[in-house]
């Protein structure tokens, strides 16, 4: 499958650094955040990578583009080894650069990738979030290929924190996935949906979306029809809820921890 990575956000919480450096190129360990994200997509079997950019994010394109003068200079100075891991990552990958002219929410960003998806399902990874302790994507892709049902990764949060996120409700299945029947973006405290476990018992935690999706192509029609939601933005959650009502939706709990690099702390 193809992987779509939104990376057009302004990164205002990192100003003034992000006047010059996209937040997706801030290092976590040895490599920038987006290097880790692309590696995760590649490990899940994605070889065509579409990255959504906006004005001022040209450094991301430069990072993943071949630079022959640089390679020649590294060869002449015996320093080519410095690029070995970058070359290993990009080997076998093709990159498509997609422009998001205006920041109108995550749903709008995903809508910009319709031509790239070319009528097929799409893997979506948020470009400012890395997974620590394992990726849910291999299981999500496998389930999508078996069922053709869209998948979303989720993590448990306290009901009090659930009001900060897109959250879902539904029922726990025998394979550990959740069959969803509710999706809400940043619900009010009394609106947080629940997951039902064995014998209909309600699980104590809420479940928030965790930056990884495998979406059927029907998401693009849904994005065209849903009205703007919170902050007058096109909310991906609202479009996913529309898909859920038409053809169902599953959720997979992430095996490790989600690290949102959009938050400096």
Automatic annotation (TrEMBL):
GO terms for biological process: UDP-alpha-D-glucose metabolic process. Residues 2-263 form the Nucleotidyl transferase domain. Pfam families: NTP_transferase. Its EC number is 2.7.7.9. GO terms for molecular function: UTP:glucose-1-phosphate uridylyltransferase activity. Keywords: Nucleotidyltransferase, Transferase. The keyword Oxidoreductase does not apply. It catalyses: alpha-D-glucose 1-phosphate + UTP + H(+) = UDP-alpha-D-glucose + diphosphate. Belongs to the UDPGP type 2 family. This is UTP--glucose-1-phosphate uridylyltransferase.
